[in-house]
Design brief:
With 336 residues, this protein is α/β, with parallel strands linked by helices. Helix content is 42%, strand content 19%. It binds zinc ion.
Length: 336
Amino acid sequence: MTDIGERLSETELCPTDLLAMQEAAFARDIARMHARAAEFVAVSCPACGDRAGTPAFEKFGFSYLRCGTCRTLYMSPRPSEAVLADYYRNSENYAVWAKHVFPASEAARREKIHRPWLGRIVGYCDRFGVPRGTLVEIGPGFGTFAAVATESGAFRRVVAIEPTPELAEACRQRGVEVVEARVEDVSTEALPEADVVVAFEVIEHLFEPRRFIRGIGPRLRKGGLLVLSCPNGEGFDIATLGAESLAVDAEHVNLFNPSALARLLADEGYEVVESTTPGRLDAEFVREAALAGRVRLDPFLERVLITEWERLGWPFQQFLAAHGLSSHMWTVARRL
Ligand SMILES: [Zn+2]
């Protein structure tokens, strides 16, 4: 892995340097992906399989289609699994993040993000009558959430499934039990059936999300809960900004929406018991894009997001979140 952060120590780095460094690293990541364009694969809709997607927008030279049946936005042609695996293994942007951004923000993220997530999951268990036996997290990253869950004692056992050696090690260092494998390859001896499986911000990155959902099946007991979070392609931020949305990037090859994901889950033997869009940043992101001149707002939105922002911004965001219109969604499904 090329560590471009090596030359600068943490203390020398100001946020502007860091941003520039990340942008340069990201540009090189993208260029590396484009260099293998011959290995890109045209795909049908990752949620419903419909083949007749129509062009939605382009970004970083990648094409996104919108499914005419379920309205999922998806990159097609998209990098093959081998190209994606190579991208994540060699990503310079992730290296910068891991070295400079993550360590500085982990403590705050624990309290502001991961502890509330755990509270939400405990709430689901209580509400849907699921015992707090084994909680499995797929794609734990550095293991912050899994560590919070482990330390809390809210579940009898917490296990992270992580195939990447460095990330698996990061989880272990935080006291998290790890199975170092892909979910499809985990044996029943290594991990008995879970009561709850969670995957935060994972499915939007996958070449074939359906196969991932299918792979989880045997790991989750019947009646158990699968909790997924991901961007909502029909939310205000993405719907308004299109390619200008930060959620539209080279890594997010699938931008589902609540009903499309529910449909995919139903096909694979799940019943969605709750679907919410708790995102809090749509209004702010669209406002920032407008202030930076990256998007033109119609007079009504101009009033809500700019002229009367202090009065209307937060209530507008609350309205979006409460009505399935924010660009970040959580889906809770019960395995049938
Ligand atoms: Zn579709």
